[in-house]
Task: structure prediction
Amino acid sequence: MVRAFAAILGRDLVLALRRRGELGNPLVFFVVVVTLFPLALGPAQETLARIAPGILWVAALLAATLAMEALFRSDFEDGSLEQLLLSPHPPALLLLAKVAAHWLATGLPLILISPLLALFVNLPGQALPVLVATLALGTPTLSLVGAIGVALTVGLRRGGLLLALLVLPLYVPVLIFAAGAVDNAAAGLSAAGPIYFLAALLVLAVTLAPPATAASVRISLG
Amino acid sequence: MPTHPSPSPHHTRATQALLEGLGLTGARGGRTLFEEFGFRLGPGELLQIEGPNGCGKTTLLRILCLLALPEAGEVRWNGMPAEEVRPDYLAQLAFLGHSPGIKADLTPRENLRVAAALGTSPTHGINGVEEALARLGLEAQGDTPVGELSAGQGRRAALARLSVQGARLWILDEPLTALDREAKQRVEALLEGHCGSGGMAILSTHQSMELRDTAVTRIQLGATVRAGEA
Result:
């Protein structure tokens, strides 16, 4: 079972490496959106610093949503998704491996580049570790929850907008707690509370989202 | 309309049947494609499903793989409803549908390794990768991404996946599509070997196949649907 998990994880990471261009798009989107704000709002440092947590998190969330759509697309088209369901191993576990690989290829780069972008929007230095922590806890949750929506819409020809309508409302709690935590940290307050909530959301998503994703894939393929 | 499960009249061999279809009714888009379809399949046997386009061959095969639900009827594995013994059943099942089930960005060798890891006996499967490539004449293409191979070579790579999965039951939807004469012979040899060692296969094809020493049952699908009930 571990072997099957590792096989899917490894395969998807190799595939991600071979299609770097496609996976780079969400990252470029994240960078472009965040850099547009200082250009539009002018160089008033206080204004930027005030809304920096919101800018960073909304941009990260949209970038993550943008990346989601490709999660099962190619597997659906070439029949690999069917094969996952036909494996004797639990489909929830194999799909979790797929989501994990997808997050490593699309979510992790967002986290790595976020300190640089925080500089662009004048986020106070003491909020930086909290920003990275909220992204590290929040983006996997987004991937796991988004996977349910992707699984439901993968069989549709133009599922992109429907996917956004399905998953964006579910992303709201993550956005509220994450942006709240960064806000608190920027104001010099403790960010522990919202971060605990984010951690709890992640645990919930890891345990509950994969079975829901597996059920959704079965519906889409049935 | 009779609803009692009726074993297929097409097949009365005395061997122990492992896979049974009982009174299967399949529909697609609200249209009934076949009704009261039954069959029995035991070790070493091959079931060839024939019928015109649109008669429900693919639907039937997807029902047998538990990918789709029948309108009525049941698939039984080892005398148990296949849904109830799903992991055991799937462990013995290898399916090749219209889509290849392998990744175009990976080489045949990489694809087979993944397939082996997902199968029942990973170690055996991974050792069998080279053999599987050789059986389908893909030794030279083992390290070229499938997307850069020809359609027929890609199809061969997909077929090679069957041997590394270590499954007893092969369900193949049009396995001979896009294959040249030589590849077709290789597939026939593959099926002979599989059935010869106690495996089972169900396949749909329009082409005639020459299989030696294999018990082949041919079933016409679609003949069971009566006009007016569709």
Notes: The longest strand of chain B covers residues 31-41. The mean pLDDT of chain B is 83.
